[in-house]
Specification:
Length: 201
């Protein structure tokens, strides 16, 4: 399956960021994991910095290497700035959009909802987390799934969190992918240019 299933706090400490959401471990131990985590860290090479940025993006969006590389190739073929194209493609994924709409509290949970056929796109059940949404397409909670506690709880907590490229109808539990997000609208702390430089080697 195209996702990381190991210790989440270890990854958060590695990048010193809340990759998988709020992390108590990161607050208690703000240094990298491992027996040398507190020791003196040697200066990273340019390649190491670029690789770390790519790894961070993969963990954030829950992807494995081949899938991420294929998405980069697709971004490179499109016109415009490759790094921004990559982030737009990542944000256009169905599992990420389910998370952004507040239907699920995390991307992992969003992926599970999609896989278990709780989500529809344009009225049809889609169980492919990597499905790439197009402008104008609607994402909704399946009628039979609207009373699921996991969904209602998530919506009650995160419903106020809005993104300008998405519309959400709380009463009908239907969202719309209104437009492709602009780079400055995407909140993730990713230096996409480093990823482009890495793949350009």
């Amino acid at each position: 399956m195209a996702r990381y299933t190991g210790p989440k706090s270890k990854i958060s400490r590695k990048f010193n960021e809340e990759i998988f959401g709020p992390s108590k471990a990161l607050k208690k131990k703000s240094y990298p994991p491992g027996m040398h985590g507190r020791g003196r860290r040697k200066k990273q090479s340019e390649y190491a910095v670029q690789l770390a940025e790519k790894q961070k993006a993969k963990y954030i969006y829950g992807m494995l290497e081949k899938q991420f590389a294929n998405l980069f190739e697709k971004a490179a073929r499109k016109g415009g700035i490759t790094g921004e194209n990559l982030l737009i493609l990542l944000e256009s994924r169905l599992d990420n959009t389910v998370y952004r709409l507040g239907i699920a509290p995390t991307r992992r949970a969003a992926r599970q909802l999609v896989l278990h056929k709780h989500i529809t796109v344009n009225g049809e059940i889609v169980n492919i987390p990597s499905y790439s949404l197009k402008v104008g397409e609607t994402v909704a909670v399946r009628e039979k799934s609207k009373s699921l506690e996991a969904i209602t709880t998530s919506l009650s907590v995160r419903n106020a969190r809005q993104f300008t490229w998405l519309e959400w109808d709380g009463a009908e539990m239907v969202g719309k992918f209104v437009s492709a997000p602009q780079r400055d609208q995407i909140p993730e702390k990713i230096q996409e240019q480093l990823i482009v430089e890495l793949y350009s080697k």
